[in-house]
Structure formats: C-alpha cells, structure tokens
Amino acid sequence: MARRYVLLALLLMGGVLVTNPVWAESSSEIQELTSGCGKGNALSCVKLGLMYDLGQGVKEDSFQSFDLFRKACDGGDATGCALLSLMDGKGHGVQDYSKAVDLYRKGCDEGYMSGCSTLGFWYAADGALTQDFSQSVSYYRRACDGGDTHGCFWLGVRYANGQGVTQDYFQAVNLYRKACDGEDARGCFNLGVMYLHGEGVKQDHFQAVDYARKACDGGALDGCAILGVMYAQGQGVKQDHFQAVDLFRKACDRWNAKSCTLLGYAYWQGQGVKQNYSQAVDLFRKACDREDATGCATLGLMYQKGQGVKQNYSQAVDLFRKAWDGGDASGCFNIGLMYDKGQGVKQDFFQAADLFRKACDGGDAFGCFNLGQMYAQGEGVKQDDFQAVDLFRKACDGGESTGCINLGVKYKLGQGVKQSDTDALTYFGKACDLRDEKGCEYYAKLKQKRR
Per-residue pLDDT tens for 217-270? Predict the structure, then answer.
C-alpha cells in the first residue's frame, strides 16, 4: 500500500496526520492486537492489518492485511472498508468506497463528528468521491460546530486557501485557534505560521514561537522544524544554533523529512554542530528518499560541488530534476545553471534561459535574477534591458540581494528605466538590508557622491 494510503488511514482512524503511527514493537503487543481483533475489536484489526501491509513488526503479508481489513469492514468499521477498497495492485479488491462512504455518512447524521470530518476530507481529496470543495466545507463545518477539532483545522485550511469559500485569513486564524485550543497540534502549527507571516493577524514572531513550540510539544513535527528555524535565525527568540539542531534532530528521527534537510544544512554549514559534509550528505539523502524536494535539490548541490561525495554532474542533474518534479523550483534553476556553465551537459544558453524562466515562474528568485542577467547580456535571448529590469525587480522582491543591486545599477545608468539616483539608492539600500556588503558599498558611495 502506498504511503499516502497509510496517511489516509491515520486520518480515518481520527489520528493527526503530522504525527507518526506508533506500531507494536514486541511480540506481546502483537499478540494483544491479534487477540483484540479475534474478539471483534475493529481498531485492533485495522492496526494489525497496516502492520502486515507495511511489514512493521511482522513479516510483510498483503493477503493477511487484506483479510484483517475485510474482518474490520464486515464488523461495520468504515476505516476497514476504506482500507479494503485501497488494496489494489495486489490482486485484491476493487476501488469501491461506497460501503465506507455510507457508513461515515450515517455516522455523521447520527452525531459522529469524525465521520463528518472524514467525508470533508474525501470531498476535498478527489479520490473516494468526486472532488467538491463546497461539500467538503459543509462537512468540515458540521464537524467543527459539533466539537471535532480536526474539522475546525481543515475548515481553517479551506478558508486560508479559498477552497469552497472566499479566501479569508481572519476566519482561518479563528478556526486554527479553535483547533489549537482543542489540542490539535496542526492548528497550533498553522496559527504560528500565520503569526510568522502576519496573515490574518499582526505579525508577531514571539507569538509564532509560542505556537510553534505548542505544535512541536503536541507532536506536530513541522512545528519542531519551524521552531528550529526561528532559533537558527533569532526570530522571536535569542539566536541559538545548538537549540535549532536539537529540534531538527528530534523531528528528523521521527520521520519528518524537512527537518532532516534542515539538520543536513546545519552539518553542511557547521552551525550548531561540527561541519561534516559526509553527515550532511547522509541527511539530505534521507530527506530526499522521504520525498522532500529541497533535500533532493541540496543533495544535488553536494554532487555538483563534490562535497561529502565524489563529484558527479550526471547524478546532480538527476537529483535536481527529481527536486523540480517534487515542486522545488531551485531544482530547475540548478539544471539551468549547469546548462549555462556546461557542467555534465553540453553548454546551451537557450536551454539555460528556458529553465531559468521556469524556475522564476515557480517562485525561485535566483532563477529570475539569472534570466535577468541573460536579457541584460543578450545570452540565450534577445538583449532587452526592459525585461532585465522586470526580472531583477522580481528577484529583489523575492529576497535575492544581487537582484536589488542590479536593479539599482539600472536606475543609476538609466537602462530600461528612467534614470533616478533616488531609486538607485533605494535598491542599493535594500540589498544592504539583506546583508549584502556590495549593496552597502554602492549605497555609501552614491550617498557620498550626492552630498
């Protein structure tokens, strides 16, 4: 069974998606589950079935897991029915959620709020039912109003994303707060993120830290990751790389892929730990294997640079491509860079420009900057200062300091924009604020010249 199905199973059982399942670790615990299932305890059948399906604590046996899910389903358990319907590709069952859907709908109508939450999830997931965000919102609202904190959390997500309702960050904040107060760690995490970015609430790094800590303590491992980042950057807390590393390690050890990437970065840069490229590579590989696209992209950089591994451009390209396929625009940018430099591939400015454009469109500020450079120099594209200015502005707005510097230079020279020393100063100053020494230097020189 694919891991996404296991996550669905955790949701169906009323679990929190951001925590990890606790499997039986001893023969006595397995015997207890077996006994419970034999006595008609459907949850024991489901847990034991998942263990056989994944080979956790027992030898993997899809036939045994199928029989256990069927037993749970025959006993009227909707989770067992849902998992039974997912047993495809192994010669078992068919994709038929009808029995599970009927059971959850009946449960929801009879006041079983977790049933309402599950139906809300299925209407949003485009699998068990035809995707319908309006229906999803309706079921999540029923669940939340009935006291189900998972329903409040997911209703908040719908409001934050504008799915099935008009986007409303204030409403999302209220729902996340309600979920967090009900001890849903994901609600605490998302509320912390809203405070961090100032969405629906006034930006407040101290509040962000408090909610991230609540999320982490409640088992939301992404909360540990973001709290670690805030310690590393000194946002809302005194900067402490050692504390950051402890948080990243805690979450990485519990299967949080993003935290493995962050811990790998700490080893790569020697922040909070002794610099160790080999250890960084191992952590990036672990994160990539767990489908963290940023982990794949950073592992690609290690192969490109030959740090902690033997330099291998072909391997780097494969990893950058995997990162791009996983939604990390930096993967596309890095492949473009290799075409630009002719590393592992034949140098091709046209291909590089196309890849930088894709990366920029995907939100990668470095992609915007490099494409701007190509327009400024006429490499791989027709020379065009107006396009270059637009792209440097995008890069600068995305936090890329060299984009701010180049935009300042364009204003200073009047290339692609109306000449303006005032605007040039603004962008040199912005680069300086981003801790770029060259930006500070340009700002000071131009400021002195204008006196």
Answer: 998 999 999 999 999 999 999 999 999 999 999 999 988 999 999 999 999 999
Residue 61 falls within a domain, yes or no?
yes
Q: Of 244, 192, 257, 195, whose CA–CA distance to 218 is shortest?
A: 192
Query: What is the model's pTM?
Result: 0.72
Inside any domain, residue 323: no
> Are 438 and 405 within 8 A, CB to CB?
yes
Q: What number of other Cβ atoms are within 10 A of residue 300's Cβ? A: 30
Question: Helix (H, G, I), strand (E, B), or coil: what is residue 95?
Answer: coil
In this structure, the chain runs to a length of: 451
Residue 283, domain member (yes or no):
no
Say if CB 398 and CB 419 are below 8 A apart. Answer: no
Residue 218 lies in a domain: no
Contact 336, 352 (CB under 8 A): yes
Q: d(Cα 451, Cα 449) in Å, to the nearest integer?
A: 6
Give the range of the structural domain holding residue 14, as residue numbers without chain letter.
1-96
Rg from Cα positions in the chain: 26
Distance of CA 412 to CAs 303, 371, 420, Å?
Answer: 39, 21, 6
How many domains are there within the chain? 1
